[in-house]
Structures are given as C-alpha cells and as structure tokens.
Design brief:
single chain, mainly alpha, 4 helices, 0% strand
Length: 70
Amino acid sequence: MTRERYNRLMSPAKEQLIRLIQDQPEDSSLDEIVRELAFATMVERGLADSDAGRTISHEEMGRRIESWRK
C-alpha cells in the first residue's frame, strides 16, 4: 500500500493523534505526550459541548465552586 493511500484511509482521530505527536518537541517524554493528548481531548469535548449548547453561566459555575468549599 502506498503512503498516499494509507493516509487517505486513516481515521480522523488517528490523523489528529499523529499530528499531535509530530508537533511535540523531539525530547518529549511519553508522559508529556499523553498529557497533551488528554488536554486536546478535553478541549475538543468542551468545544463540542459549547456548540451543542451544553453550557452554564459564570454565576452558576461560581455557585458550584463555592459549594465545593463547604
């Protein structure tokens, strides 16, 4: 299989993971790469929630944080 055909068959998730790894510094540890992947995943989920209207106000978030302190 040619590299070009392989690239066309890759899933978007796999492509995103490959790009994320390639964007890391050469001396990155596995832990650093995993943390970056987790962060990117959380950002994607947050953006999807926002796009779907699954958000709360700043005031509500403030109330929730205050309730954790009790």
